[in-house]
């Protein structure tokens, strides 16, 4: 942050101090991207012109007052694309090769030969066609999987997905996939997208992977589908409630892999987030167009959007 501190008055604040710090500020950098403090402090934003959030998802700050204001919203698109894609590929391989089962047998001191699954030739449906979804598609394709996408609109001939199906038709196409990867942004349209009807339409041998937002999934419906063998397994990095409550059945289910919202967090990621903001701040000072401007009606940066 040194370049910013050299050019501007910088105030650092926690949630309690945010209202006072926000008065008179032109720019707000939301470093704690899970914080819910901004809506409550919004009445103090008396001259704010730009809000930047240190995440790809912007749902924590997409409250009505910001959406209806003239404040420019930018996100940290690009920082997490390849790390999350690597994480998803790792999960696919872990499922196919039963690494969890091998570790359990190792801990039990049991020698048990098994056969595992091929990765090449399997099918992956990636729900979310933004930069992270595209990086996942390219990585899974390189590993030999066949991929398709799900986005706002159906289309053919996409360079990364081939076919893209409309999210309204998800239940009609989800049965095609051996792996279903949720990476869509959280919007009013995608909240609860994966519900009982969608899980019932999956192959009973398919695995579900969520590296998007926990609220994309109706958790109780997923648990029921796993218990009923409608879905063979799940790998979850995000949850409706974080941390995941101790009483959640997901903790003890044999066919579930859990991680604490870390799929994009690689060594050095915090420095990269700060550097991205600094680069945009320098554009702000120079009167240049900003990168990663979010369409506040859509809730994400549109593909092919020009800097603003």
TrEMBL record:
InterPro entries: D-isomer_DH_CS (IPR029753), D-isomer_DH_NAD-bd (IPR006140), NAD(P)-bd_dom_sf (IPR036291). PROSITE patterns: D_2_HYDROXYACID_DH_3. Residues 89-263 form the D-isomer specific 2-hydroxyacid dehydrogenase NAD-binding domain. Keywords: NAD, Oxidoreductase. The keyword NAD applies. It comes from the Bacteria. PANTHER family: 2-HACID_DH_C DOMAIN-CONTAINING PROTEIN, D-ISOMER SPECIFIC 2-HYDROXYACID DEHYDROGENASE NAD-BINDING DOMAIN-CONTAINING PROTEIN. This is D-2-hydroxyacid dehydrogenase.
């Amino acid at each position: 942050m040194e370049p910013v501190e050299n050019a501007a008055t910088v105030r650092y604040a926690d949630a309690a101090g945010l209202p006072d710090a926000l008065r008179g500020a032109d720019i707000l950098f939301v470093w704690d991207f899970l914080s819910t403090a901004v809506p409550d402090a919004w009445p103090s934003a008396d001259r704010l012109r730009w809000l930047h959030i240190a995440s790809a998802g912007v749902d924590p700050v997409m409250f009505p007052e910001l959406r209806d204001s003239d404040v420019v919203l930018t996100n940290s698109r690009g920082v997490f694309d390849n790390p999350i894609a690597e994480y998803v590929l790792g999960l696919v391989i872990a499922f196919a090769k039963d690494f969890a089962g091998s570790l359990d047998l190792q801990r039990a001191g049991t020698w048990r030969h098994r056969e595992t699954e091929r990765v090449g030739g399997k099918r992956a449906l990636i729900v979310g066609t933004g930069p992270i979804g595209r990086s996942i598609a390219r990585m899974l394709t390189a590993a030999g999987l066949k991929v398709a996408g799900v986005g706002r609109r159906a289309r053919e001939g996409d360079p990364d997905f081939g076919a893209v199906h409309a999210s309204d038709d998800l239940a009609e196409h989800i049965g095609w996939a051996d792996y279903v990867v949720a990476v869509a942004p959280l919007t009013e349209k995608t909240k609860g997208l994966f519900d009982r009807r969608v899980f019932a339409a999956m192959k009973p041998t398919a695995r579900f992977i969520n590296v998007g937002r926990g609220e994309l999934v109706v958790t109780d419906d997923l648990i029921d589908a796993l218990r009923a063998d409608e879905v063979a397994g799940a790998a979850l990095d995000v949850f409706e409630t974080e941390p995941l409550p101790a009483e959640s059945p997901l903790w003890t289910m044999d066919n579930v892999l859990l991680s604490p919202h870390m799929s994009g967090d690689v060594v050095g990621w915090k420095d990269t987030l700060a550097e991205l903001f600094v680069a945009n701040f320098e554009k702000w000072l120079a009167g240049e167009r900003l990168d990663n401007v979010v369409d506040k009606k859509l809730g994400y940066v549109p593909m092919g959007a020009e800097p603003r």
